[in-house]
Amino acid sequence: MKKKYNLWSLNIPINFKKLDKEIINYLNVCEKNLGLIPNILLTNSIDKKRFETFNIFYNRLMQDKNFLNKIEKEMIAVVVSSINRCLYCCVSHSYNLGKLLKDPILSKKILINYKTANLTSKHQAMLDFSSKLTRNSYLIDDNDRNLLRRKKYSEKHILEIIEITSFFNMTNRIASGTNMVPNKEYFSF
Q: Is 132 in contact with 144 (CB distance < 8 Å)?
């Protein structure tokens, strides 16, 4: 694992020599599997409880097989991040979505304006819901949930859409608030 600097604008150093062995192992697995260690993991490594809590929630939502597939999950992450104009998450999740779709152009269309990306009506409804929840959560009502139900989303799908949208609203604010820097690898495809 190489030392990394300038990951964010906070003056909180990451002491690689004092990282917990479990964290080091996790970061090494990421580097082996992904070819990089996402900066969000490095910044969370400053505290073991922070690291574990973030990863448990992220992995439960984004990595575990739940109700939405990985492409749908990344689509939500991209749209929420785009609305919030979060540099770190826009760059990293549009990169991830492009890889999953095997289509970086479609990924960028979803990032810039998902309504022009020629998505299925089901995906359009999912992203409309995520968009409204991000912009005006207090306006969400049964009409919005019923629209998802009419598109054949189950109650557990709807809960997962809400959780993923909410998670990325939180991480966008942390990444933007700390001025987290996207990994350089995310800028190429």
A: yes
Placement of tokens 């009419």 in the chain: 150
User: Who contacts 133 (Cβ-Cβ below 8 Å, separation ≥6)?
Assistant: 140, 162, 165, 166
- Sequence-distant (6+) residues with CB within 8 A of 26 are 41, 51, 55
- Token output for 92: 């990293």
Estimate to the nearest angstrom the gap between the alpha carbon of 152 and the chain centroid. Answer: 24
* Span 111-139, pLDDT tens digits: 999 999 999 999 999 999 999 999 999 99
Residue 88 region by backbone torsions, left for phi larger than 0, else alpha for psi between -120 and 50, else beta: alpha
Average pLDDT, the chain: 95
CA 55 to chain centre: 12
Residues in contact with 163: Cβ distance below 8 Å, sequence separation at least 6, in sequence order: 61
Domains and CATH numbers, the chain: 19-63 (1.20.5), 70-187 (1.20.1290.10)
Question: What is the predicted pLDDT for the residue at 14?
Answer: 85
